[in-house]
Amino acid sequence: MRSPQRPLIDSIDTTGTAAVRIDELRVLHGEFVDFMLDYKFAIDEITTKFNILREDLHNANEYNPIEHINSRLKSPESVLEKVQRKKYPMSLASIRENVLDIAGVRVVCSFISDIANVRDMIAGQEDITVVDERDYITNRKPNGYQSLHLIVSIPVFRVDRTVRVPVEIQIRTIAMDFWASLEHKIYYKYRGEVPPNLLSELTQAAEAANQLDEKMESLHRLVDHNGERDST
Ligand code: GTP
Ligand code: MG
User: Which atom of ligand 1 is nearest to the CA of 82?
Assistant: First the structure.
């Protein structure tokens, strides 16, 4: 059984023989791999929850607000890089407490109004706790980025213990997602130093994406209301 409080690096006995140090490194490596598995399982749990919601709605012939779902597990290198960059203590307990985006799930919806519905469907589940919520749709980022971010914690049932694991859930529309993927690519291509003219074009593109979202939302409502009238 691992001890999450033990520092990851400081516990290596630098006064011992090389063989002892390699043994200790092997143990640390094993503990870290096992720790990362918590997050892989948490992604599996959250993804299953969204898939159940989709199938349940489909089965009930109800409208399905989820267009598609992606997930990603942060690489061990990125986790350790973030701990160093943010100067968090280098222990498993500190990583669990501070690095809340090791497990990431992105839910893409068709319409703006779907986002709140998807949020409520997941946040309302008994085993889910919402730890943090950032609404970048109401409060768009200055570059134009829009998305609803939730940090939730979910229990993961391991063979010998139950652990609560944080998962970052990003919920956004297709248009918001389209914009964010391109912005991300451009940001990486220029290593964060994006030329000002490109930045302003990106902000204009975000505005266009937002106008498309609003237009689609109003058409969707129109069709929905007509549908209700037709069926009466
Ligand atoms: P990190 O420490 O970088 O994870 O950010 P944070 O803890 O301040 O959280 P924030 O809510 O700002 O961002 C979390 C995640 O949202 C990022 O890792 C990206 O996936 C996404 N994100 C946030 N801002 C932007 C943005 O301007 N452009 C794009 N493409 N993605 C963004
Ligand atoms: Mg992040």
Answer: 2
